[in-house]
């Protein structure tokens, strides 16, 4: 079972599981996920889609593995759906864990680098407890995910559920929503339309971008490992947002210019995973650098921009 399987990462995870021979049932309420991400599986007999809000108790029958990926995840989405984000991180996580407990299924939950907040340790190791504003605008996501981790560890300790926690860093690639507000889709869309690229603040804040196929490979390896403490999966190559804007201009061949907008509140100044643990434990490291990943994503974004233009 994949909760949130109609989302960007959830849908790619479904593809990877099906490719390994599993049967997959997706449970998703389509708040931020899209059926379009799964349309290629319409005729797949090993695939089933259930439209269901996991904040309410639910049942899909016996499963061997629960991948809990349901949550709004982009700043724009979790700001628009703050209460739902807190609910899915709390109630939804209880329900997903209850299913794993009932069927003695293994459990892997998607957590986030946002658990580290605006980090005072750099790069971030899994042992860092973070620097999170518990009442700021981002807290609906950050604290939901920190609570998700706490419930997951509690089900392990109290109910012996076989759990895993992946802390996901910025990931990009095909199936990202054009309008989810994240930096890569924003810049790609703006560059392809010939609009100014909107850099927030002075653009010197950093992020480390992982291409989706690398990220999913990390999830699949962790799913088969025995580690129950959090593992960072992300690309350790760090770029300023201004570097990222210039790279998008280069890859798209766009003549767009860069403009500067106000920096959102509590926007982390820097972010880079320390992936020593994933390297040692899973033999995992990303293979695709940012420029190659942007080139691999280009056709998808071109098509998405063309479709949006046609609808307008
Ligand atoms: N950002 C930007 N322009 C945009 C969208 C985002 O400069 O059009 C910045 C944002 O302020 C942040 C970084 O890019 O510093 C990454 O933002 P994103 O929303 O992709 O994810 P975050 O890492 O903040 O969750």
In brief:
By secondary structure, the protein is of the alpha/beta class. Helix content is 40%, strand content 16%.
Q: How does this model look, in words?
A:
The chain is of the alpha/beta class. It is built from 9 helices and 13 strands. The protein has helices spanning 8-19, 75-80, 82-102, 139-159, 183-193, 212-224, 241-252, 276-282, 290-311, and strands at residues 2-3, 24-28, 47-51, 65-68, 106-112, 163-168, 171-172, 197-200, 206-208, 210-211, 231-233, 238-240, 258-261. β1, α1 (8-19) and β2 (24-28) form a beta-alpha-beta unit. 44% of the residues are buried. The structure holds uridine-5'-diphosphate. The site of uridine-5'-diphosphate (UDP) has 16 residues, from α5 and β8.
Can you summarize the main beta sheet? Answer: 7 strands, parallel
Question: Uncertain runs with pLDDT below 50, 5 residues or more?
Answer: none
* Number of helical segments with 4 or more residues: 9
User: What shape does the CA trace take?
Assistant: globular
Fraction of residues in helices?
Answer: 40-55%
